[in-house]
Amino acid sequence: MRSPKFVVPVIALLAAACGSPAAGQQSKPVESALVGVTMPTTKSERWISDGDNIKRDLESRGHKVDLQYAQNDVPTQVRQVQSQIAAGAKLLIIASVDGSALTEPLAAAAEAGIPVIAYDRLLRGSPNVDYYATFENFRVGVYQAESLLNGLGLRNGDGTPGPQPGPFNVELFAGSADDNNSAFFFNGAMSVLKPYLDEKKLVVRSGQVDFTAVTTLRWDGETARKRMEEILTTAYKKNKVNGVLSPYDGISLGVLTALKNNGYGAPLPIVTGQDAELPSVKSIIAGEQYSTIYKDTRELATATASMAEAVLKGRTPPQLNNLNDYENGVKIVPAFLLNPVSVDKANYHQVLVDSGYYTDDQLR
Ligand code: BGC
């Protein structure tokens, strides 16, 4: 993804940005500002923690926060952003429902001189996005695919060939097509799976292998359950599916329900995931879902709050570490990327409990 020729400008910018106002910008004292924060939905735990963590962090810095959830409804999110602009927000932090649907409120924000940070999901099709804070999204997909291969036994954890030669039957799921992250996850995963598909060590019996054929609108678990049931009844009359690439825990649980409804029992096919949501971590401990990808939303929230503080002061956020990969259709948005961590039954305790993300009690 990143080519060496881009390394120098990144370092140069970081050096220039560290602690100094960006060219042409004045360092301003930060007063208490109203910050508008919009999140996609409360249906998924991760966005609740994201919202709470950003709010807490900004409030501890003396700011006021208007935190809104759009319940996955685009017009609701448009209205929420518009009302934050009207209420005098000095900065907007947006995790979009549909990354391309906010161009009008973003234009209104620019008109009012309000900077915008895209949170976790890139805002597309608009020049009015100043910064982006997220995780290494391509790497998330790489980790999902590697864990699918590890679970099947085609690969060892250290990347060497595993004990099983295959072939294995797998099915592929991607996230919502209107979320810029979905293609990053899927492309990351396919970069790992493609050679196995080419060599027929992995076979997708449904034939659904293109991104557009495997997306899941709004990341909905029930939509995924229905698609998996449909695939099982049409493509698996005689064969068994051995693994499912799932991009998100809510989808993983929908897929597992479909499998159980169709007579699959222990050991269940290998099913991946993302977000380390509580029900999925419990499922991993119970030996059902195979893996997830942990993204420490506390860290993303803290980093975003300190980026916000820098922007409110008129500075370039010193955190930026990727100036190349996030082209939104109009511009490349300077980004700060955090690392994801692959989690399965073997390391969940060390990664999730020892870090304080969950307590043992929560996982019982
Ligand atoms: C996020 C994932 C999340 C998914 C569904 C994506 O944009 O990056 O962490 O699993 O949305 O909420």
Please outline the helices and strands:
Blueprint: H1 7-17, E1 34-39, H2 45-60, E2 64-69, H3 74-86, E3 91-94, H4 103-111, E4 116-119, E5 131-135, H5 137-152, E6 168-172, H6 180-198, E7 202-203, H7 211-214, H8 221-235, E8 243-245, H9 249-261, E9 270-271, H10 278-285, E10 291-294, H11 297-312, E11 335-338, E12 341-344, H12 348-353, H13 360-363
Parallel strand pairs: 1-2, 1-3, 3-4, 4-5, 5-11, 6-7, 6-8, 8-9
Antiparallel strand pairs: 10-12
How would you describe the overall organization of this protein?
This protein has helices spanning 7-17, 45-60, 74-86, 103-111, 137-152, 180-198, 211-214, 221-235, 249-261, 278-285, 297-312, 348-353, 360-363, and strands at 34-39, 64-69, 91-94, 116-119, 131-135, 168-172, 202-203, 243-245, 270-271, 291-294, 335-338, 341-344. With 364 residues, the protein is α/β, with parallel strands linked by helices. The protein has two domains: 10-129 and 296-339, 3-Layer(aba) Sandwich (Rossmann fold); 137-294, 3-Layer(aba) Sandwich (Rossmann fold), CATH 3.40.50. The longest helix has 19 residues, at 180-198. It starts with 6 loop residues before the first helix and ends with a helix. The structure holds beta-D-glucopyranose (BGC). Beta-D-glucopyranose binds next to loops. The site of beta-D-glucopyranose (BGC) has 12 residues, from loops.
Secondary-structure-derived class: alpha/beta
Can you tell me the CATH class of the largest domain?
A: Alpha Beta
- Overall mean pLDDT stands at 92
- The CATH superfamily of the largest domain appears as Response regulator
Instruction: Please state the CA-atom Rg, rounded to the nearest Å.
Output: 21 Å
Q: So how many helices?
A: 13
C-alpha end-to-end distance = 40 Å
Strand order of the largest sheet: 2-1-3-4-5-11
Strand content: 5-15%
CATH architecture of the largest domain: 3-Layer(aba) Sandwich
Share of helical residues: 40-55%
Write the CATH fold name of the largest domain.
Rossmann fold
Order of helices and strands: HEHEHEHEEHEHEHHEHEHEHEEHH
- Taken from the alpha-carbon principal axes, the silhouette is elongated
Oligomer: single chain
The figure for the number of domains is 2
Largest sheet: 6 strands, parallel
Give the low-pLDDT segments.
Answer: 1-26
**Counted beta strands:** 12
